[in-house]
Design goal:
Blueprint lengths: L5 H9 L5 H19 L2 E4 L1 H16 L10 E5 L26 H8 L3 E6 L33 H8 L5 E5 L6 H7 L2 E4 L20 E5 L2 H11 L29 E5 L9 H16 L3 E5 L7 H16 L18 H12 L2 H14 L5 H24 L2 E5 L15 H5 L6 H5 L3 E10 L2 E9 L4 H13 L13
Parallel strand pairs: 2-3, 7-8, 7-9
Antiparallel strand pairs: 1-3, 4-6, 5-6, 5-10, 9-11, 10-11
Helix pairs in contact: 2-3, 5-6, 7-15, 9-11, 9-12
Bound molecules: glutamine.
């Protein structure tokens, strides 16, 4: 049953091949059996899930046809879930029971999904390896001595190990696509503003975007359909009717042009990964896609720009954790100032503290113009490069990550090395674009992802290209040994 895609689960439920209670129990059993090795969940909600599965079966019997009625999923622990612990991977929120549902959770619940629990993640979504989580690292099911990527590593590893057929992630600089690539699954980062950020714990508000993670592009389309939509509670939500994201899946790719940015195929890319990307290009060529070299001249600034903008926004967003209103509160304080200081010293991990310090520095008077303002100007230039490129090409193809999954601990004392994991993904967030990572092959049994980047609101085209690629490749169908 767990080999089924989400699409097939929906069909199976519709055709009464199995009930929601059966499929939910099946996945809960798998989680019980396999999760102790992987640490993909922070909180499991089996009782609620089984109760909701029974309700979903009853609703289906009455003729309800909600899009994902009775389908099991997992929610990244960055989304507030009413009455359920919501930690964002941090000790700061270890005692936080959210009093409401994030819009993503609300929308997905309305579509009928059944959440099995909340997935592990890097603390406040800061990281590329899932090692900054207060709840311990997640292991990559393809080799449990390696990282799953991050920050949505719990969701990626859970989907890869088939502990759940689909999950949510968030992507501020690559946190859906990079773990999807490292775990051999499909992950979509939607256009900024397409999916509501309300109730999604903020990291860097001008970059954060929620999106789907699943085995296939088609499944990502189904999940996106259930998550997205205008939300008056998010001031950056875009008021625009939703398309049917999977409407173009079967369109032929013949005659399309994909750009290959020369800056993405230079030093730093593992030659074995480069070979897999070449093979993926070959698959698209066979489908009639033309390739064209393009240049995105300001791309080299994207990592430095991101590491000014994201810490600046995070230092502001995380100022709310002061021990007064909710979350961790130090018991050692004897006055108010100590309460703030000790609470934050005890509650945040070292990567979060590093970002808050960088961000506070970059925003401080005297440095604001030199760092933050300059970064914002370069951000515009990066976005402009993409805008020009999309006049010439339909989509842009690149690797998702420069290497396959690395060993746990390998980059823990090397923040810059860790930051470079996102070298191919970060510019997409700076420009607010949409992008998808597709399983493209393996290097020594470890998955490699290929990234397709599209213009704003290109989700149907990205899903179309992803689906066509997956009709002509089988990398997305592989299961890690020991998790069959
Ligand atoms: N790895 C990047 C960071 O640590 C991106 C994280 C993300 O997308 N949430 O900031």
């Amino acid at each position: 049953m767990h080999q089924l895609t989400l699409r097939k689960i929906v069909d199976g439920l519709n055709q009464k091949e199995f009930s929601s209670q059966e499929i939910v129990s099946h996945y809960l059993d798998r989680i019980k059996k396999f999760d102790p090795q992987l640490n993909t969940f922070i909180t499991l909600t089996p009782d609620i899930a089984l109760k909701k599965a029974a309700e979903a079966d009853a609703l289906r019997a009455k003729g309800s046809n909600a899009l994902l009625l009775g389908v099991p999923v997992a929610q990244k622990d960055i989304f507030c879930t009413d009455g359920i612990k919501t930690t964002c991977g941090s000790k700061m929120l270890d005692n936080f029971i959210a009093p409401y549902d994030a819009t993503v959770v609300k929308n997905m619940n309305q579509a009928g999904v059944i959440s099995l629990g909340k997935t592990n993640m890097d603390e406040f979504a800061m990281g590329s390896s899932n090692e900054t989580s207060f709840y311990g690292p997640v292991k990559n099911p393809w080799n449990i001595q390696t990282v799953p990527g991050g920050s949505s590593g719990g969701s990626a590893a859970a989907v890869a190990a088939k502990l759940v057929p689909g999950a949510t992630g968030t992507d501020t600089g690559g946190s859906i696509r990079q773990p999807a690539a490292l775990c051999g699954i499909t992950g979509l980062k939607p256009t900024y503003g397409l999916v509501s950020r309300y109730g999604m714990i903020a990291f860097a508000s001008s970059l954060d975007q929620a999106g789907p993670m699943a085995q296939t592009a088609e499944d990502c389309g189904l999940l996106l359909q259930s998550m997205a939509g205008f939300d008056p509670l998010d001031s950056t939500s875009i008021e625009k009717p939703l398309p049917n994201f999977n409407a173009e899946l079967t369109h032929p790719l013949k005659g399309k042009t994909f750009g290959l940015p020369k800056e993405f195929f230079q030093a730093g890319l593992d030659p074995h990964v480069a070979k897999i990307i070449d093979e993926a290009i070959g698959v698209f060529k066979n489908l009639g896609v033309n390739f064209k070299e393009i240049s995105l001249p300001n791309l080299s600034h994207s990592v430095p720009v991101y590491y000014v903008v994201a810490p600046a926004e995070c230092s502001s967003n995380l100022s709310r954790y002061d021990g007064v209103r909710f979350g961790h509160r130090s018991t050692k304080a004897t006055n108010l100032e100590e309460l703030y200081k000790l609470t934050r010293a005890e509650g945040f991990g070292s990567e979060v503290k590093r970002r808050i310090m960088i961000g506070t520095y970059a925003l401080s008077s005297g440095y604001y113009d030199a760092y933050y303002l300059k970064a914002q100007k370069l951000r515009e230039k990066i976005a402009h490069d993409f805008a020009l490129a999309f006049k010439e090409v339909d989509l842009i193809l690149s690797p998702t990550a420069p290497t396959t999954a690395f060993k746990l601990g390998a980059k823990s004392t090397d923040p810059l090395g860790m930051y470079l994991q996102d070298i191919y993904t970060i510019a997409v967030n700076l420009a607010g674009l949409a992008a998808i990572s597709l399983p493209a092959g393996f290097v020594e049994n470890m998955p490699v992802g290929v990234q397709l980047i599209g213009n704003h609101f290109s989700e149907p085209q990205l899903l179309n290209a992803g689906h066509q690629f997956q009709l002509h490749s089988d990398h997305h169908q592989k299961t890690p040994i020991g998790f069959e």
